[in-house]
Amino acid sequence: MGCGNPMLKRRKSTQVCIMKPQINDAWSTTSNSSRLEDYSISTLLGKGGFGKVVKAQHVSTKAQFAIKMIAKNPSKPNQSKKALNNEVSVLKKLNHENIVSYIDSFEDSSFLYIVTELCQEKNLYEKIKKAGKLKENTVKEILLQILSAVEYLHDNKIVHRDIKLENILFVSEGSNKIKLTDFGTAANLEKNQRVSGCCGSIFYIAPEMLEGDYNEKIDIWSCGILAYALSTGKWPYEERTTEEVLEKILCSPFQISADNCEGLSNEFVSLLKEMLRIKPEERISASDAIRHKLFNDVILFYFMLNYELVTCLKKLSLFFLRMI
What is the C-alpha separation between 273 and 251, in angstroms, rounded? Predict the structure, then answer.
């Protein structure tokens, strides 16, 4: 892996994206009937380079949703449409308990809108910013759900390309149930199982993304960085500028060692090492990561929980049958 890549000189922000999304040219995914007037906007949930996300209530049904609002670029009227078309076309294909559900999309003269289900709690970054770091058992529970979503994406030949703390939402207060969101830079794997283009958020970028084309294993690297940050409360790189961090990723990617994983169990360290292997062909897959010994007790817990639930439902059914 070489250093001094000229790509590094062109990046100015922590959100990196220098490619065109893989999309269809037609703006064919929006609804012809929905309008912003159909919703009552109440709260700002977040904002970024893409625009903002707001909490909204449907006027007639009173149901609550999240709406992503992307400002149109007057100088490039088709660019925003194509980017949103990409996100909507991906979201429409997905149906997984740990991925936000698509509801609708539409546009007006100023904005493009994506309506999704509403997650009532804050994102993972806001939680760790307050807590510093999370207990290993909590991280295991969250990471298993993320990997389940990633396995589903990869099975459907989709690469997320921007897995990070801010894109993991908690469904409700007091629960560790999460959902993966923001498919603005997601891509479909080509026939040769490779995609290209550098995008995502700087600390989570896999080394091979700076080298050329790559496959779905970049998502696994991002999951590894996310898991490390959650369990230690630390970022993988100490460099201050975007260019310095990218140079570090390219020349000396983050690796797990005895110095930076103190206090973590052997099983957790083992999985982190597998997810953060520099060579993508040696990096663990989402399917194999889910089956790692780290999650044995978590999977057993969910199995027992589901067993108890089924048992209770059977007893309840018998009770009502006797009442008839």
Answer: 18
Output b/e per residue, 238-261; b: 16+ Cβ within 10 A: eeeebeebbbbbbeebbebeeeeb
User: What is d(CA 57, CA 64) in angstroms, rounded to the nearest whole number?
Assistant: 4
Q: Which of 223, 220, 227 is nearest to 283 (CA)?
A: 220
* Residue 193 tokens, joined: 């199982």
Residue 19 has what pLDDT? 41
Q: Is 162 in the active site?
A: yes
Domain with CATH 3.30.200.20 in the chain: 21-117
| Residue 78, pLDDT score | 63
Fold that domain 21-117 belongs to in CATH: Phosphorylase Kinase; domain 1 (3.30.200)
Q: Which residues of the chain have pLDDT under 70?
A: 1-32, 74-81, 298-324
Residues of the chain with CATH 1.10.510.10: 124-300
Please tell me whether 92 is known to bind a ligand. no
Single pTM value for the model = 0.82
Give the span between the Cα atoms of 20 and 187, in whole angstroms.
Answer: 10
- In words, the CATH class of domain 124-300 is mainly alpha
What are φ and ψ of residue 285, in 5° steps? Answer: -85, 165
Strand pairing report for 64-71 and 102-107: unpaired
Q: Which of 104, 162, 182, 219 is catalytic?
A: 162
